Amino acid sequence: MNKVMKFFLGIISLGLLTSIFLAISIYNFGWNTKAEKSQCVIILGCSVYGETPSPFLKKRIEEGYRLHKEGVVDYIIPSGGQGPGENISEAEAMKRYLLNKGVKEELIIKEDLSTSTMENLQECKKIMEEKGFEKAIIVSNKFHLKRASLMAKEVGIDGSYSGVFVEEYKSKEIYYFFREILALAKFYILKN
Questions:
Q1: Which residues form the DUF218 domain (predicted)?
Q2: How far apart are CA 77 and CA 17, in angstroms?
């Protein structure tokens, strides 16, 4: 076997080992992390179909609502701007959903300026500082929590995490899990 072939096999092996390490890291964090009592829960945005939360977003909202209803948090920060094909911001869709569930409006603090997870957390950190909140629970899909936790640390949020898994869309969950391996690798390299 020539040196070029060995080099390429080495690169492929390294890439494979790195991918396995990242996949284990994503899985362990997402499936083993626990929410801790905090002043607020940050629900990270996801697609809205017109004005209706997508199944992934609906599951995230339900988890944030559960934490609020059980007294683990007082305030809910729905976070997400308006994306293509969305008639309202993700935060507004979440707020409407929560109001329909009976959450008092004064306990919902909408963040609708962000267009990415990093921006979600940066904007939520500003809200936390304005309100004097020291700790937050961050809610997203389980596959997304590891990267979200690194971003939260980057912006200075003292957070715990609560993940959801949308059983009815298991194939999409698996697809996004594998896509997250690349996203996490990109974050470690570029810090965004």
A1: 40-161
A2: 38
Cβ neighbours of residue 167 under 8 Å, at least 6 residues apart?
none
Which residue type does 10 have?
Answer: G
Answer yes or no: are the C-beta atoms of 73 and 67 closer than 8 Å: yes
| Cα–Cα distance measured from residue 102 to residue 57, given in angstroms and rounded to the nearest whole number | 18
Domain of 81? 3-190
- Could you tell me the pTM of the whole model? 0.93
Residue 153: helix, strand or coil by DSSP?
helix
Domain count, the chain: 1
7: its two tokens:
């080099």
Neighbours of 26 (CB within 10 A): 22
pLDDT digits (tens, 9 = 90+) for 55-105: 999 999 999 999 999 999 999 999 999 998 899 999 999 999 999 999 999
Q: Do residues 37 and 73 touch, judged by C-beta distance below 8 A?
A: yes
Alpha helix positions (H), the chain: 3-32, 55-69, 90-100, 117-131, 145-155, 170-190
- The owner of tokens 């940066």 is 122
Torsion sign over Cα 35, 36, 37, 42:
negative
For the record, the structure tokens of 45 come out as 């945005």
